[in-house]
Design brief:
Elements lengths: L7 E5 L4 H12 L3 E6 L6 H4 L16 E6 L7 H11 L2 E6 L6 H6 L1 H22 L3 E7 L22 H20 L3 E6 L1 E3 L12 H10 L4 E4 L5 E2 L1 E3 H13 L6 E5 L5 E2 H12 L5 E4 L14 H7 L7 H11 L5
Parallel strand pairs: 1-2, 1-4, 2-3, 4-5, 5-6, 6-11, 7-10, 8-13
Antiparallel strand pairs: 9-12
Helix pairs in contact: 1-8, 5-6, 7-9, 9-11
The protein binds uridine-diphosphate-N-acetylglucosamine.
The site of uridine-diphosphate-N-acetylglucosamine has 20 residues, from helix 7 and strand 8.
């Protein structure tokens, strides 16, 4: 399907890990895409495969990509004005730009409020002024905090335990408000543990799969924090991109809040054994003290996303791990 006659899709945080997969999917669908990214954690290399799209410009009939370097919380009106003046209005917005570390939000809550809350309000203000037809937003399972009942459902009362979770939760409320009061259609997606190619392993707080893949490739030890019996619901980034793009390009799910996970629960012990086995480079599994403040178990109920978007995560953990390990040269 080619839909270059359709309006522009803006992807904030489009140079990030999840954002670059969303851009890939949109270009594949023939859409004209504007990425907004401040490159604090986003990388130009993540968008390199589609850099040639820039040369078509927005005047052509091909799917195209424009990249604007701007802090989403400082206002996107000025940055987008020249693009929309030439190529028409923004039709849809996918808001992924964020400060992504829970630990960093505890250390510096004001930065988190600026990027993760004020940034969302800026996006919604733009959407209101520009008459955008849908805003899809990356929320997080961090909004739940510790819950009594698993799998965790969207109706579960939220008790976020970090500034990160609080700002994501407040952003969801703002989405609801803009839809109810200003008529801006919005959908919030609560991502569980997302993994896949292009996830950056370089910080101690990077996703566990990116760290294990990086270490497994070189036969280094895989360090498990605590007894390893804690569980997570790992969802492949290609599936997440599909959920986000469907939510943004479709008109279903206005004011919905939807879990994006697999409903499969795996312990970190099982994960480490699987990755060490797939890499086959002799990594040992070692244990270190548990991280404080961590949730013990996490797994998503996924019925609502299926009912509202027809979304089911299709990639098995084994297939997703193989793709991820191949992408970093940890597996043939
Ligand atoms: C993840 C998200 C966070 C989100 C939260 C929601 C990432 C990077 N973080 O945090 O944004 O808000 O889910 O619940 O995706 N572990 C090890 N060894 C390591 C690294 C991690 O054993 O080297 C363990 C951790 O202790 C944890 C599990 O693996 O029990 C997952 O850790 P991590 O990938 O950092 O994600 P979450 O803490 O679940």
């Amino acid at each position: 399907m080619t839909s270059t006659s359709a309006g522009i899709v803006v992807v904030t945080g489009g140079a990030g890990f999840i954002g670059s997969h969303v851009v890939e999917r949109l270009i594949g669908l023939g859409r004209r895409v504007v990425v907004i990214d401040d490159f604090r954690t986003g990388k130009r290399a993540n968008l390199a495969p589609w850099a040639d799209r820039a040369r078509f410009g927005f005047a052509g009939t091909e799917p195209a990509l424009e990249v604007l370097t701007v802090d989403v919380a400082e206002g996107i009106f000025a940055a987008l004005a020249p693009v929309t003046a030439r190529f028409g209005p923004v039709e849809r917005v996918i808001h992924l730009a964020a400060q992504v570390s829970v630990v960093a939000s505890v250390e510096n809550p004001l930065v988190d409020v600026h990027v993760n809350y004020r940034g969302t309000v800026q996006v919604l203000e733009y959407a209101r002024a520009a008459g955008v037809r849908k805003v899809a937003f990356a929320s997080s399972s961090a909004v739940y905090g510790d819950v009594d009942e698993l799998p965790v459902r969207e109706a579960t009362p939220c008790q976020p335990l970090s500034p990160y979770g609080i700002d994501k939760y407040a952003s969801e409320k703002m989405l609801h408000y803009y839809s109810a009061v200003h008529g801006v259609p919005t959908t919030a997606l609560r991502f569980f543990n997302v993994y896949g190619p292009r996830q950056d392993p370089s910080s101690p707080y990077s996703g566990v799969i990116s760290i294990f893949a990086d270490r497994g490739r070189d036969g280094r030890d895989l360090t498990i924090f605590g007894d390893g019996e804690q569980t997570r619901d790992f969802v492949y980034v290609g599936d997440v991109a599909r959920a986000v793009v469907d939510a943004a390009l479709g008109d279903a799910g206005d004011r919905a809040v939807l879990n994006v996970g697999t409903s499969r629960e795996i312990t970190i012990n099982e994960l480490a054994t699987t990755i060490a086995g797939l890499c086959g480079r002799g990594s040992r599994i070692v244990h270190a003290p548990a991280r404080s403040g961590e949730i013990v178990r996490s797994v998503a109920a996924v019925d609502r996303a299926r009912e509202v978007l027809g979304f089911t995560a299709a990639t098995s953990l084994t297939d997703g791990l193989r793709e991820t390990l191949r992408s970093v040269g940890a597996m043939a």
